[in-house]
Every structure is written in C-alpha cells, then in structure tokens.
Design brief:
about 190 residues, mainly alpha, Endonuclease III, domain 1, globular
Length: about 190
C-alpha cells in the first residue's frame, strides 16, 4: 500500500510506512494545501532526525518551533503547529505506548470506537477524526466494522470529499473542485 497525497515520493513513502507521520500530516491539514500539510512529517523527520512520538513529545518546545520555521516552513503557523504536534505526540506516548497505529488496532476496535479514540486526541475534532477514519478505511487497510458509517460522509465509496479520496493527481483535482464548490455554497448561504 502506497499513499499518493503529496506528489513527493519520499513524503508519500513516509506517510505510507509510518502511522504517526500520517496522523501528524492529518493534524497539520488546516489552513494550508493538503500536499503541504502531508509533506510536513518528512520535513520534521529531516530537521529533527525522527518522527517518533517519544522524541517529539520530549523535544525542547522552543527548538521544535524553530525547526518548524526553517524554510520551507512546516506550516504557515509554525509555532502553534509545533505545539500541537508536540501535544499529539505526548498523547500518543502516554495513552498508546508511542504506537499511533494502536488507535485503530488495539483490541480490534470497530469504526465507532476508532472515531471516539481519534476525537480524544489533541487537535482532532469531529470532522478531522471522520476524515482520518475514512483515510484509514479507504487507503490504509483498516477494516473494522462500521467504519464507513462512523466516518460518514467521508467514507462514502466513490466520493471526492477529502484527503481520504486522493489516490492520483486526477483525484486530487476532483477533491479540490468539491472543496471549492462547498466554499462557494457556504458563501451563498
């Protein structure tokens, strides 16, 4: 299984191989292009030397913020997002034994339970948790009962609503078109 989210083979390989990197990419996916957000974990790995929950949880906060600010920045809000990544990694270390995949593998949870676990993470509200659950089900091999229903509407088969649906440059364009249409409809309302 190889994800194709960023258009950068090395960044996509890291996302495919490292569940924490994928979780961090999802956390960073706000107020920046999806490709930028999901390329963030590779930048972190290159600058810090690791994308490991314990390493990032215990990294000096000011130094981590400086690493996020280096050009090209990890995020348009490097200081606050460095803090959010650190909070996420602390939660993964404290609650999941540094294993991000335990969120969807420990005790064979169903879709509703994974959604509940995701929503308990710092920086993961209802929508972000549903999108990530849909990404797990559509592209990351998660097969827990009821994942499509728990991630609705993002789990819908054949949709182009979110990062969960990006498998190629063409699907990225369809997701962008959907998001633009939603923004236009929201402006009209």
């Amino acid at each position: 299984m190889t994800l194709h989210i960023t258009g950068d083979a090395a960044a996509d390989r890291l996302l495919s191989d490292d569940p924490l990197a994928l979780l961090i990419g999802m956390l960073l996916d706000q107020q920046v292009a999806m490709e930028t957000a999901f390329a963030g974990p590779l930048k972190i790995q290159e600058r810090v030397g690791s994308v490991d929950a314990a390493t990032l949880a215990h990294y000096d906060p000011d130094q981590l913020a400086e690493e996020f600010k280096k050009t090209p920045a990890v995020h348009r809000y490097p200081g606050s997002m460095a803090g959010r990544v650190q909070s996420l990694c602390t939660a993964i270390e404290d609650d999941w034994g540094v294993d991000a995949s335990a969120l969807w593998t420990r005790d064979a949870p169903d879709g509703r339970e994974v959604l509940k676990r995701l929503k308990a993470l710092p920086g993961f509200g209802e929508q972000k948790a549903k999108i990530f659950l849909a990404l797990l089900g559509k592209q990351y091999g998660y097969t827990g009962d009821g994942w499509r229903e728990a991630s609705a509407p993002y789990g819908e088969d054949g949709s182009f609503r979110s990062v969960a649906d990006i498998v190629s440059p063409e699907s990225l364009l369809k997701v962008r078109e959907h998001k633009q249409a939603m923004k236009a409809a929201a402006k009209k309302a």
